[in-house]
Design a protein that fits this description.
The complex is a heterodimer of chains A (323) and B (427). With 323 residues, chain A is an alpha/beta fold. Helices cover 32% and strands 23% of the residues of chain A. In chain B, the strands form 2 sheets. Chain B has a 10-stranded mixed beta sheet with strand order 5-4-6-7-1-8-12-11-9-10. Chain B has a two-stranded antiparallel sheet with strand order 2-3. In chain B, α3 packs antiparallel against α4, α8 packs across α14 and α11 packs across α12. The radius of gyration of chain B is 20 Å and the shape is globular. The chains are: A alpha/beta (323), B alpha/beta (427). Chains A and B meet through α2, α3, α4, β5 and α5 of A and α6, α7, β5, α8 and α9 of B.
Chain lengths: 323, 427
């Protein structure tokens, strides 16, 4: 009864927003709207994600309805809300707490706001962790593969409070990156047949997801995984990429009638604090994917495997093919 | 659902502890478990601080919990996860790595709204201890390691109070996609001051107890805990002789795409209808509804309206609201309610709703289970879980005796070519 994944899902559009090198957010990094009728006041992290979505799909995207969903990842989640609520209670008393802080600051509030603004009534998913942005993309693919949606808006976002931006930058995990900055990356996934193209967005990549895999990153020598390395990154990547390639091979066979010899993918291993610049937490891996898609086309199709391992046991691989 | 999935094990931490019989007795006896928050009494900081907490003695007595109970930054959430996941695997006979390996790839989807926030709150409450390291702030770290490692997908979901039911639903997707042969899935949350502050700020906490569907109800009572279920394709679970506690026959999910806190009956109805269509169930096939039933004026009214819309009629199956006893464990609520429904099938009785002295006449004629001993009208039950942000999830489960019939029906559907998209178009 099972139908092992043979997905072919179009990556139809992509857009990204990053903080400036000094950590500031440029004026256009947030959508100008501070309130919308359906939602009320927009938290800045939602304005950031909406700005990435606007770059992905243009100012008036043709998405929405029951056959469209949203899946986003965040690392920071609601920590700023806890910080704000508890600090306010202690400094000024409970009466000074604004009622909307809690509900509009929950980890899933940003995905919910994206859905509300664009009338997207299909599945609405939010994942937690450093690799959650890539996990959200995989979850979006799974929703399309399951036949529940035709389009998924996926990606990652994060914006820490100033206090945490400083303490995280000093944390041994993120110190190699030098800084932890705000960022958001949003991609549009479509059922491959007749997939839409970007309607005014800035990226408009032509690529497709051909496989994915998830699993546990093995623990370190002490069995705890607390050493920051755990299972060797190369071994982990080999394992996850092989599983994703197996899914792709099933798709190749279904599509072309025979598996043939698929090109080996270029493997991009992404880990916290080691992303070649400021860390953007759960947006890091989706930002890397957006950058990859923005590269000039090469000589024919190429395959790339993005492998992300977070601070918990979870690791994820996304296998794409570019034209 | 053309792909029935067996629940082969479950584990939980409820305010009643970790034993199914104690949970069932509390539900049938309409136990009043409310009290002050034992972890850190808040005195008169907030208008209401009455909660349904896991007793400190339970934390101390349960091995997986005790290891985490005293470590304020590592987190009690990790303790709940370790306990409930371990118990679900053990119940399914998959605790032993060799037995698990024989089944195949096993994954784990958990859900929380508070995991990383637990450490962040500790930072605010006791700043002299220094900032929590990033690793402790990471919500995804609640997935416990297991001997041999998770060989299927792992992730941590956060969709507010629908999370605990949505995680098993997404786990089914992973099974359908052939990415695992078994999945452990569920949700959990710990009581935090941040949550107490947030719900008080929204004026959603009832000082006189959670009284779903009652006249003059005033809101929810916050609680904590969580539950996980072990899910396997019904055919392979039967083939290996696994215990079958219940069979998930369908589910639906939707997003209101509206207000952050105000529920939209239209969005909820889509999830209910999706579950019914997915289960191939007529309204008469539902023998009872484990309602989301938070006890707020707006939520209960929206749920009843949505159920009537989805069922296409005024008369609804018997309703019960276990939050009237267990409180609202947020991301743990959906999976704890799922466990309550499993126990109801096992006992062939629907647990009553507490605090129902006078029903809300504004809700019309509804059949709320008020006394213990009521048998379900049919052996398929519906479980609802809705969350802030308009996240909705609804699941239907059938008793284990339905397994062979469901399997035959699934086989016929597969023969008819329905296997390609198990729930295509069901919203």
């Amino acid at each position: 009864m099972r139908a092992p994944g043979t997905a072919r899902i179009a990556l139809s559009a992509a857009g990204a927003v990053r903080a400036e090198p000094d950590g500031r957010l440029a004026e256009d990094a947030l959508v100008p709207e501070r309130r919308v009728k359906k939602v009320g006041a927009l938290p800045d992290k939602a304005r950031l994600a909406l700005a990435a979505m606007r770059r992905c799909l243009g100012p008036e995207p043709s998405v929405g309805g029951d056959r469209c969903g949203v899946a986003l990842g965040t690392w920071f989640g609601a920590m700023d809300v806890a910080e704000r609520c508890l600090d306010t209670v202690r400094a000024d008393g409970f009466k000074e707490v604004t009622p909307s802080w809690y509900a509009t600051g929950l980890p899933n509030a940003t995905a919910a706001i994206v859905a509300a603004v664009h009338g997207i009534t299909g599945p609405n998913l939010t994942f937690l962790g450093w690799s959650a942005g890539l996990e959200a993309i995989v979850a979006g693919c799974r929703q399309i593969a399951a036949g529940r949606c035709d389009t998924m808006i996926v990606g990652g976002f994060d914006m820490t409070s100033p206090g945490y931006a400083a303490s995280l930058a000093a944390d041994p995990v993120f110190a190699p990156a030098g800084a932890v900055h705000a960022g958001a990356a949003v991609l549009r996934l479509d059922r491959a047949a007749g997939a839409a193209t970007a309607d005014g967005g800035e990226a408009g990549p032509r690529a497709r997801v051909i496989g994915w895999s998830q699993g546990e990153a093995g623990p370190g020598e002490d069995g705890s995984g607390e050493d920051g390395a755990g299972e060797d990154d190369a071994a982990l990547a080999d394992r996850l990429v092989a599983a994703a390639c197996a899914m792709a091979a099933r798709g190749d066979a279904a599509e072309r009638g025979a598996a043939g010899v698929a090109p080996a993918p270029s493997v991009h291993v992404l880990t916290p604090g080691r992303v070649g610049g400021p860390d953007h937490l759960a947006a890091s891996a989706p930002l890397h994917l957006v950058d990859l898609l923005a590269r000039p086309p090469g000589d024919g199709p190429a395959r790339h495997a993005l492998v992300a391992r977070g601070l918990g046991p979870s690791a994820v691989c996304l296998l794409i093919e570019t034209d | 659902m053309s792909y029935p999935v067996a629940i082969t094990g479950f584990g939980f931490l409820a305010p009643t502890g970790t034993e199914p019989e104690a949970l069932w007795q509390a539900l049938e006896g309409r136990a009043d478990l409310r009290g002050p928050w034992p972890k850190r009494p808040l005195d008169d900081t907030y208008p209401v601080d009455g909660v349904v907490a896991v007793p400190e003695a339970v934390w101390a007595e349960t091995a997986a919990l005790a290891a985490h109970a005293e470590d304020s930054s590592a987190g009690r959430a990790a303790g709940i996860a370790e306990h409930m996941v371990g118990a679900a695997l053990a119940g399914a006979g998959l605790e032993d790595p060799a037995a698990a390996a024989a089944v195949g790839r096993i994954g784990c989807f958990l859900a929380t709204t508070t995991a990383g926030v637990e450490a962040a709150e500790a930072d605010r409450v006791a700043p002299e201890a220094g900032a929590a390291p990033a690793r402790r702030l990471d919500g995804s770290a609640i997935v416990p390691r297991r001997p041999g490692g998770w060989t299927g997908p792992t992730a941590v979901l956060s969709t507010a109070c629908s999370s605990g039911l949505l995680a098993p639903a997404l786990a089914i997707d992973a099974l359908v996609a052939g990415e695992a042969e078994a999945m452990v899935a569920g949700g959990l949350d710990v009581l935090l001051e941040y949550t107490i502050c947030g719900f008080n700020g929204l004026r959603l906490v009832a000082p006189d107890g959670c009284r779903p569907f009652a006249a003059g109800r005033r809101g929810a009572v916050l609680s904590e805990g969580g539950a996980a279920v072990c899910l396997e394709p019904l055919d392979t679970a039967l083939a290996r002789g696994a215990p079958i506690h219940a069979v998930i026959t369908g589910y639906g999910m939707s997003c209101d795409a509206g207000h952050a806190t105000a529920p939209d009956p239209t969005g909820i109805a889509k999830a209910v209808r999706g579950a019914l269509v997915s289960a191939g169930a007529e309204p008469d096939a539902i023998g009872g509804i484990f309602a989301h039933a938070t006890g707020t004026l707006a939520n209960d009214a929206a749920e009843i309206q949505a159920l009537r819309t989805a069922f296409g009629r005024e008369a609804l199956p018997p309703l019960t609201g276990v939050k009237s006893i267990l409180g609202h464990a947020q991301a743990g609520a959906g999976s704890l309610t799922l466990v309550a429904a499993i126990l109801a099938l096992e006992h062939d009785r629907l647990p009553p709703t507490a605090g129902l002295a006078e029903r809300d006449p504004e809700l019309g004629a509804i059949d709320v289970v008020a006394e213990p001993g009521r048998r379900p009208a049919a052996r398929t039950l519906m479980v609802d879980a809705f969350g802030f942000g308009g996240n909705n999830c609804v699941v239907t489960i059938a008793g284990p005796e339905a397994a062979s019939g469901l399997l035959a029906r699934a086989g016929e559907a597969a023969s008819a070519g329905a296997a390609a998209g198990p729930m295509a178009g069901e919203g």
